[in-house]
Amino acid sequence: EVDIRNICDVAVVILVPECGDTIQTLKAGIMEIADVFVVNKSDREGALELVAGLTQMLKLSGDTESPLFMTSIKNPVTVENLFQEIRRFAERHRSDIESKKSHRNLDTIHELLSQWIEEEIGGWIEKNVKITKNPYQWLMQFRNKHPHGSVLGT
C-alpha cells in the first residue's frame, strides 16, 4: 500500500461515508499514503461524521499539511476545488515530486540492468564458465571470457 507514494506525484485517498469502518481502515496503514484526503458523496448520511473522524486522526498523527475535502457530484464546485488544490499541492511540493521522479528513474534503471544481467550474463555464464567451489576463480574466468567482464575491474 505504501509503495504507491513512490509511484505517483500526489496521492489522493478518496473515502465515502458508507465504506464501513473507515477509521479502522485508516489506522491500518492508509493514513501515511495520502497527500490529500477526500470524502466523496458528501451529501450522504455519515459524511460529516467521517470528516470529523478524519480530522481527529490527522490531528492526532500531527499531520497539519494534508488537505481534507468534501466532494459531491451534486455540487460540481467541490470537485473543481479539489482539482485546484491538487494542482496547488503539486506546485508547493514540486522539488519533492522531482526527487521522487529521479528515484523512480533510478529504480527503473536498476531494474532494467538487473534484467539484462539475468538474461544476458546469466545465460552466458551457464554456457561458458565452469562453476568452481572458489567464487574468486569463477570471477576471474568471467572477467577473462565475457565481453563485458572487464567492467568488474581487476
Could you explain the architecture of this structure?
By secondary structure, the protein is mainly alpha-helical. It contains six helices and three strands. A three-stranded parallel β-sheet has the order 1-2-3, with helices on both faces. Helix 2 runs parallel beside helix 3.
Secondary structure elements and pairings:
Elements (H helix, E strand, L loop, with lengths): L3 H4 L4 E4 L6 H9 L5 E4 L7 H15 L6 E3 L5 H17 L1 H35 L6 H11 L9
Helix pairs in contact: 2-3
List keywords for this structure.
single chain; 154 residues; mainly alpha; 6 helices
- Kindly report the spatial arrangement of strands forming the biggest sheet: 1-2-3
Uncertain ranges: none
Share of residues in strands: 5-15%
| Helix/sheet category | mainly alpha
Radius of gyration: 25 Å
Tell me about the largest β-sheet: 3 strands, parallel
Q: For the terminal residues, how far apart are their CA atoms?
A: 43 Å
Tell me the helix content.
55-70%
Helices and strands, in N-to-C order?
HEHEHEHHH
How many helices? The count is 6
